[in-house]
């Protein structure tokens, strides 16, 4: 009898105290799943998105886009670079990604890249080759500054394609 009562009490205890606690624990947002992660490394973003979309902006400063279609393509690429800059603020699968994205200076360069690329978007929209050149120079300055700060051991020269004459490299 005694064990029956205590087992009943135990069940009640489970029902009223433990179960709500468990439910509360389950409904807490999981920290890991809330943390945003890119599916690839920042190095991959750099090679496949940043470098890829920046090149044609620099080239355009030398070889002016001819058709509406060319300008439109340039606008899309500049937009990709703008988005790419913002993606650099989110860590991916690379071993040092988190350390980079946690760094304030890194965040600053990423935002600057995004803003300079937004200016290239506007320049392409208004088909203004001088503004494209200016935005291209701003972009290369940000690439260069971030590389000097965060990857000084890797060579940076010759990866930028063609630069406009006023580029500060
Ligand atoms: C916020 C900092 C930052 C900015 C801005 C930045 N980079 Fe990088 N970039 C890096 C770092 C760090 C690496 C090295 C990544 C690694 O080794 O994992 C890198 C690597 C690269 C690589 C080498 C990728 C490879 O695997 O060969 C290229 C190419 C590159 N960046 C181009 C650019 C260009 C072009 C721009 C500007 C349009 C730019 N980067 C802007 C930080 C930056």
From TrEMBL:
Any single biological process term in GO: electron transport chain
Record-linked Pfam families: Cytochrom_C_2
Protein name: Uncharacterized protein
Protein keywords: Signal
InterPro entries named in the record: Cyt_c/b562 (IPR010980), Cyt_c_II (IPR002321)
Matching SUPFAM superfamilies: Cytochromes
Organism: SAR86 cluster bacterium
Segments traversing the membrane: none
